Amino acid sequence: xxxxxxxxxxxxxxxxxxxxxxxxxxxxxxxxxxxxxxxxxxxxxxxxxxxxxxxxxxxxxxxxxxxxxxxxxxxxxxxxxxxxxxxxxxxxxxxxxxxxxxxxxxxxxxxxxxxxxxxxxxxxxxxxxxxxxxxxxxxxxxxxxxxxxxxxxxxxxxxxxxxxxxxxxxxxxxxxxxxxxxxxxxxxxxxxxxxxxxxxxxxxxxxxxxxxxxxxxxxxxxxxxxxxxxxxxxxxxxxxxxxxxxxxxxxxxxxxxxxxxxxxxxxxxxxxxxxxxxxxxxxxxxxxxxxxxxxxxxxxxxxxxxxxxxxxxxxxxxxxxxxxxxxxxxxxxxxxxxxxxxxxxxxxxxxxxxxxxxxxxxxxxxxxxxxxxxxxxxxxxxxxxxxxxxxxxxxxxxxxxxxxxxxxxxxxxxxxxxxxxxxxxxxxxxxxxxxxxxxxxxxxxxxxxxxxxxxxxxxxxxxxxxxxxxxxxxxxxxxxxxxxxxxxxxxxxxxxxxxxxxxxxxx
Length: 507
What we know:
Pfam families: CP_ATPgrasp_2. By secondary structure, this protein is of the alpha+beta class.
């Protein structure tokens, strides 16, 4: 098996310095990989696919039907080469993520209460009140701990800076029903099963306690009317693309997985039907969008939620996590204002920067975007999953022209960003080890305090040259290793040196 420095020579920001020297926190893994037989990785990948298929770790692809017309189930491709993050780097990310999520929760409380940031003129009022995700029903509603987004999935990318190491940027804030954490946990279990010797060589910070932290956060978010809250996970059902994750998290937390038909509201409380009769529900970890939560308030045709749920929620007799109306804070048209939120609410400078963003609703920005679309990434403000976007450098002239027409027809529905040269990571593909672009989604939990496990879900664009990492667009996942301290690489290197010098000569 060849070393990284023999095979990986492009976009070195994750693993190489400007001088093409492998970074300290990857040296042990590089040396280990160089000693492996050439067919080892392929055999391990086959084993991983077999186990994932047996366990049922799949996702459904909307619009992708089999011959019977049913939605197809796929494995999310899993890459065997981990992404390794040094401890000092993670400490910076952790501080920046906590800062950002705190500010976003302060913003959500503000817009549904005093609206100070709007009165100060930092955000145009119409961008909030005319936003499709703004819920006027939530005005004046108090929620436990003043936290609206208990589970936040913040998408980070790294692009080159003057040092060549690369700077992290926040690409998106996912505050509604962020998914993917089950793959983070299962990827780690798989790596520990396939490569136990690697965990003896690296001090990798654990993540297996995430379900415990999640349950703690949900219980901390319960109404004050109960000391022993009953928590449930509300799923749209088995045909949802993330159903595996809903069932997985319910099982890991030891709580009930319910559908809308399992719940009912009576006398301003919420109950679930059980074989022993009705049981009061205090906290709902919902994986159902706002529009489907309560047919008496939102979409009348919805069968995924529970009639009367919003009234119980507004009365403070049940908590919904994440809160109703959080979507306004992760809309792409609001994203450019997050740095201002941090300064306004916290009196601090942002630790993590946004990607520079053009708002097509602004005349000057629109003119620039239309003139330079072939060099930009243009996104619908409500788009998700890699859909509703144009990657200008990878698009045809016809695609660019069609997108221009769409933007001109509805400028306020689009933003644009420069095409960042995203960092890439060695990835095991059919041709061997090759660089592929990656992002990182850490999961930030907000209850009475902000907590997170070290790392997150690294998503990888498996198509050569692609910048789209979403699983629905052919992306895969990697295990993310955060080293427990800055000395671990040096300590293990010294231990390896000592061990090799004391071992008898094999010849």
